[in-house]
Amino acid sequence: MTKETLTRFEVSTKNPELFSIHSVAHSPRSLSPHDLTSAVENLKLDFHGEEPGPVSSAFVEFLFADFFVNAHSSGLYNRQLALWEAIARIGSGTINPLKTGWFLMPKEHPVEEVVFLDSLGKPVVLAWLVQEGDPNSILNMLIKKVNKMKLQESPLCGVFLVLPDPVDESFLDKTRNFLGADDPVARYDARLPEPALIPLNLLDYRSHDTEDSDESEERCSIRLIHPTLRKASGSQSKSR
After folding, report:
1. Burial class (CB in 10 A: 0-12, 13-18, 19+), 129
2. Is the peptide bond prior to 227 cis by the omega test (within 30 degrees of 0)?
3. φ, ψ for residue 86, nearest 5 deg
4. What band does 211 get if pLDDT is binned at 50, 70 and 90?
5. Beta strands in 107-177 (DSSP E)
6. Alpha carbon distance 68, 76 (integer Å)
7. Are the C-beta atoms of 156 and 150 separated by less than 8 Å?
8. pTM score of the predicted model
9. pLDDT tens for residues 154-179?
10. Are the CB atoms for 91 and 117 separated by under 8 Å?
11. What contacts 208, CB < 8 A, 6 or more positions away?
12. What does the pLDDT average to over 113-127?
């Protein structure tokens, strides 16, 4: 399989004397909403290489500023604790077009793959950002890849599948049932079956074109659609 890194990003702390997402993860039960907000505001993202697209840059910000915070305030972090703690350990990441097949004849898919790495360079969070295509076949490819990673003892702790809005209702219903949505407690685990046994969270996104004086900026809003939280989760970010 060919591997081409187009965009890299680094996650660091602006002021080491203040709250950071790395420090707050050690004592989640004693945190206030203000502590979490301060920790996220103290986070710095630096992108290198090719300019990230609006969806990928918005998702990277969403993971920290929205999912990490709202998972705590809603209690979801209790059900997806390993993923929540893994987000706090992220030190860098890559954004690439998804390619499969042999390096001589790779097949490129209308999907951006975002891999979040810990300080050792190991993948701890994986996200597929879908531009178009059959969500069923894309989900099958994603599950196959995750299962292969886990069989190879990957430290991967969670997966995000991000689809363009609107998401097909039949696909959404089928996937929710696959992830245990009929169980009032386990539905929040959103756990893939063996061998993966890690959360798969579903999100949708909507792009917005806006004109500001002489330049046009594209914004992207991202929303968690499974599992749904008691507190609505959403984010709108500018493209970089």
Report:
1. buried
2. yes
3. -65, -35
4. low
5. 107-117, 123-130, 158-164
6. 10
7. yes
8. 0.90
9. 999 999 999 999 999 999 999 999 99
10. yes
11. 218, 219, 220, 221, 236
12. 98
pLDDT-based confidence at 222, cuts 50/70/90? very high
The amino acid that residue 179 corresponds to is L
Q: How crowded is the C-beta side of 55, counted as CA atoms within 13 Å? A: 25
Main-chain dihedrals φ then ψ at residue 152, nearest 5 degrees: -95, 15
Q: CA 55, CA 39: separation in Å to the nearest integer?
A: 23
Give the sign of the dihedral formed by CA 193, CA 156, CA 168, CA 109: negative
CA 5, CA 198: separation in Å to the nearest integer?
A: 26
Distance CA 161, CA 171 (A): 13
**Are the CB atoms for 195 and 150 separated by under 8 Å?**
yes
* Structure token pair of residue 57: 């840059």
Give the integer Cα–Cα distance in Å for 202 and 223: 9
Q: What is the pLDDT of residues 59-90, one digit of tens each?
A: 999 999 999 999 999 999 999 999 999 999 99
What residues does each domain of the chain span? 7-238
How remote is the C-alpha of 88 from its chain's centroid? Answer: 13
Residues in the chain: 240
Residue ranges in 76-134 assigned as alpha helix (H): 76-79, 81-88
Measured CA to CA, the distance from residue 174 to residue 118 in angstroms comes to 32
Concatenated DSSP letters for 21-72?
HHHHTT-GGG--HHHHHHHHHTEEEEEEESPPPHHHHHHHHHIIIIIIHHHH
Q: Read off the pLDDT band of 232 (50, 70, 90).
A: very low
